[in-house]
Amino acid sequence: MRIAIVDDKKEVQQQLGEFLKKYGAEQQVSIDVAFFSNGLEIVDSYRSNFDVIYLDVQMPIMDGMTAAKKIRQNDENVIIVFLTNYVQWAVEGYSVNAFDFILKPLSYFSFAEHFKKIQHKIAENSKSILIKEKNGISRIFLDSLYFIESEGHYLIFHTTERDIETMGPMKRIESKLESENFFRCNNGYLINLNHVKNFTNNIVQVGKYKLQISRPRKKLFIQALTNYLGRVGGH
User: Is there a contact between 173 and 180 (Cβ–Cβ < 8 Å)?
Assistant: First the structure.
């Protein structure tokens, strides 16, 4: 597991690094850690090679929120966790799909509980389905899937890399993914709750897409999203 710690304070870098080393030894997990002193350092050298990035919100040169927005332009899947003294940053963190916020000062017990959720999330991200398309069979990792669109007799899988078209009924794929944090927001769309960025009125933004929530399903959608956020530890 590759972890980046981005904080301008060396004592925070050291403490978090020691927490990760201790957790790895206790749980027999291999963890490699890279350290950065500000947001610009990681943004300039970013190659989508981290599983988790810990970002201090307030840093000189480039703050954590700005760095997260730039990282998200190139990597929608990396897990971002903010380090902060102020809980109010959680609202803005929703815009970059932050997985969690850790309030300073840190304690090992709360960090270990947090990192268990990280491990669960990474395990979830490795789940996939096989789809038959025109030129063969494709494997789609669920964490890369924004939503599935039903169009006539066809299903279109909108992923972070490309759109994949196959034949089949929406009900079949919906039943297969009902336990994997997907929700049918109307007759035509089955969305991945992990990629929901925001919603207002009857419009939900899933990745770069803005999709309609049918009026009868709006209450169920809010409930499903709330339950999902509760399970993953909040955004």
Answer: no
Average pLDDT rounded to a whole number, residues 172-199: 91
- Contact (Cβ atoms closer than 8 angstroms) between residue 210 and residue 203: yes
Fold type of domain 128-233: OB fold (Dihydrolipoamide Acetyltransferase, E2P) (2.40.50)
Question: Which residues on neighbouring strands pair with residue 138, listed in sequence order?
Answer: 131
Q: Helix H segments across 45-107?
A: 64-74, 89-93
- C-alpha torsion sign, points 46, 48, 53, 55: positive
Q: How far apart are CA 43 and CA 143, in angstroms?
A: 22
User: Dihedral angle at the C-alpha atoms of 112, 116, 118, 120, nearest 10 degrees?
Assistant: 180
- The Cα angle at residue 20 between residues 15 and 22, in degrees rounded to 5: 95
Q: What is the pTM of this model?
A: 0.60
Give domain limits for the chain.
2-126, 128-233
Is the predicted pLDDT of residue 233 greater than 70, yes or no? no
**CB within 8 A of 100, min separation 6: which ones?**
81, 82, 114, 117, 118, 233, 234, 235
Yes or no: is domain 2-126 CATH 3.40.50.300?
no
